[in-house]
Amino acid sequence: MSKDIYVVVEQRNGNIQKVTYELISEATKLAADLGEQVVAVLMGYKIADKAQSLIHYGAQKVLVLDAPVLEHYTTEPYVRGIEYVIKNYEPNIVLFGASSIGRDMAPRIAGRVHTGLTADCTRLDVEVSKYQEYLRKATNLPEEKIMALDTSDRNLKMTRPAFGGNVMATIVCRNYRPQMATVRPGVMELGEKDTSRTGEVVMVDAGLTEADMNVEILDVVKQTKKAVDITDAKILVSGGRGVGGPEGYNPLRELAAELGGEVSSSRIGVDSGWIEKDRQVGQTGKTVHPELYIACGISGAIQHQAGMEDSEFILAINTDKFCPMMQLADLGIVGDLKKIVPALTEAVKAY
Ligand code: FAD
Question: In angstroms, what is the span from residue 301 Cα to ligand 1's centroid?
Answer without folding.
Answer: 6
